[in-house]
Amino acid sequence: MHHQKRKVFGDIMSSQAARGLYGQEASDLLLDEHTASNDIALSGDMKSATCSLINLHRPESTARFAHYQVLSTESFTSGRHYWVFRCSRDRYWRVGVTYPSVQRMGYESWVGNNNKSWCLRRFNHKLTALHAPEEKVLLPSSPSQRFGVHLDYEAGRLSFYQLDNPVSHLHTFRATFTEPLHVACWVWWGGWITIRS
To answer: In this protein, which residues make up the domain named B30.2/SPRY (predicted)?
Structure first.
């Protein structure tokens, strides 16, 4: 009976995830080339980020990150928003949200490494929630390549889900957001992230 209940719950959650958690449609997000570091290659549809071994020599800009990172063109200042991303299984990556005022150079510019950003990180198959100086191990090993993110700006909640069958809640950050929030993608060598919407 317990197994049957878990299966029904999993089917419901998987169906819900397919159309967006909380019954929402996924937010339509694009990555912003003006913020992309010169070691991040973007797909033509601006949905995917891959770490490049070649310097892409983009024009200099105060908005551009020095290494491994890119933001979304869209930002959120209110409301509820949901998006899904796919990612490399065995590489180092981070996905989260950040204020536009975050610095652009150095270790503290990386999403999750400062008090202006929050993220989910995969490193050596391990999933971790990061908001400096706090770090919480969520799963010691995860092969999943599909995740969901839900932001409730006014309520100050940012939640991450692993979209396997069944869907599982990984972590919820709680904060009082004070600036617009951009989606941030950080990718190490050989890694990739694709935003699905």
So the answer is: 9-197
